[in-house]
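Example 3.
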Amino acid sequence: MKSGDMANLKQIAAELSLSVTTVSRALKDGPEVQPSTIARVKEVAKRVGYVPNHHGRALKTGRTLMLTAVLPMETRDYLSDLAKLPLIEGMTLAARQAGYSLSIYSTTPDDDPVESVQRLLDARSADGLIITRMVSGDPRVKLLLDQRIPFVAFGRTDLDVAYPYVDIDNEQIAYDATQRLMDKGCRRIALQLLVAKDQASAMRLAGYGRAMAEAGIPIDQSLIGHGTFTMESSVAWFDRLLASSDPPTGLACANELGLLGALHALGRRGLEPGRDVHIVTRDNTRLARFLPAKIGVHSVDMADVGHKLIEVLESRIANPLGPVVTVLLQGKFDPAE
Amino acid sequence: MKSGDMANLKQIAAELSLSVTTVSRALKDGPEVQPSTIARVKEVAKRVGYVPNHHGRALKTGRTLMLTAVLPMETRDYLSDLAKLPLIEGMTLAARQAGYSLSIYSTTPDDDPVESVQRLLDARSADGLIITRMVSGDPRVKLLLDQRIPFVAFGRTDLDVAYPYVDIDNEQIAYDATQRLMDKGCRRIALQLLVAKDQASAMRLAGYGRAMAEAGIPIDQSLIGHGTFTMESSVAWFDRLLASSDPPTGLACANELGLLGALHALGRRGLEPGRDVHIVTRDNTRLARFLPAKIGVHSVDMADVGHKLIEVLESRIANPLGPVVTVLLQGKFDPAE
DNA sequence: TTCGGCAATCGTAACGTTACGATTATAAAA
DNA sequence: TTTTATAATCGTAACGTTACGATTGCCGAA
């Protein structure tokens, strides 16, 4: 934005016959400057509509007051991952409250994740980074740790290094979901996962495996589906399972879209959730409760995840060498009515 | 990001015994500098990993290469407006391609819209602004025009000034939807709108009114519902209509959430879309096509809206005094199968 | 009176970049 | 040989801010 008539320190200083230094200090209530002077400076600053120039300050101090979140975007499907919306809203709001701006860097499936992060590092345009969608052995963690850039990840990974993250306890949620399905009498329980290397899916698989092992039920690999975040793939996958000779009686869904897909597949066959197949899903958006279907729901507060991410990142920026903060959030279960 | 060992022009200049000026020019292929020098400079720049300092450049040139989108966020409901997700993705991607970063400024219902814009103006941290959710007589337009800040609006308003916008032709879509419902034999057609002063809703109401007038059907105000973007309100509203003595036989939904709510209300009464009530909805996310229900759909490509917004804003920044560009996008109709 | 100590303010330099006029070297024209 | 044009490069200033050491004026202690 240009409109060159922007007030600056020099103008205020000239008007009051003070030095730029004194004005600068007065505006941040520096103890070196006389209270009466502070008052005069602030009065003029307000009158001329002074707002500190972000770039002058950033250049001098090295801080940008900007955070960048790297978010993957699915170009195949406009619906993308619904959880991203409350996540973005939570992050932007928390960032704003903490005095930061949040910029979103969307990556397409064509983008190399490491390269994207590298580019952001090079640009040095943010004080900190938020990375999401962690994969097994995620190389971005090492890159960011090496460069000593404050960052926080949404999700853990299987690396043997400590780094700041916020995560949902996917293992526990999947364990719990599987158990609840078994409580309904299900023994053939289908599990919906995302792409294979997705770390959240790995955790979910672990929780599912633990529950099955405890119940002494052998795992049937054909019941475990890997897909993308879209509804299409969910419909096709679950439809195939339903068509098999020994169809599942229980289903643990990955998210809203997976759930909608599965319901679609059920509906086409005249089957009913809660009667023919028991369903438990993870819900990031409170969408599931509005569906006319009996399903158990693990709700996850993604806006809270966003808040926590910013909080952790902020503490990291304030104290880059401090202890590594990690947060693990639980889901909240609402049974099928 | 600190890691103070950041390469700058001075270092490159020193290494090559050149002046900072020449290096700066060489890196942007200035015609004043010898091709062989350009090559040498670029080689060193690449080796030391030089990346231009954003703030130094912004301070000097007055350009920030940053755009800010002001997006309202519904705190009542995590689902918020689903259309925002593809919109954000479209904008961030287009911005990136145009060499800009996009920052998101989420406003809560508590925030005063004008004040939010004013704050962003004061901060001077962006080269341009994107405003959304236009209301009748939107005061932000005058504010932004007065301050000569490049901006683009998602949506028109009823002001008598020219300003750059991208909009969906809501009037035409509502007109079309109403006609299609009448083609199915509906005469009592319910219309789902958002809050009263929302400008998009006003356009939709106009289109509905035009279609009804052409068909000679008087408008029954009780069939026109004003609500929020949530599903709850949609369920309650449509349920009340269905319970009335003369229930509607057609329904034009505002968006996905409104549709899901209406379907919920129908399902509870054992009614079926396409048989008992004909439904046409606007769909911003391609969600509707996955629902096991016969509904007509006007699909709107929100990612494209995002692209267009950035495009218009970019041209505005490049030429602030040029002609005011406006874009009006049509929906694409997919009939109930 | 002279000095130390303190409060209040000032001046300069620096962050990294770009704009612009000045300077040098080179080659062609007189 | 001197002039003139041109190509290549340089130096300085500026954008708005903050850090830091220097300076001023004043009061009380010696």
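Chain A has twelve helices and twelve strands. Chain A has three domains: 9-52, 66-168+303-332, 170-299.
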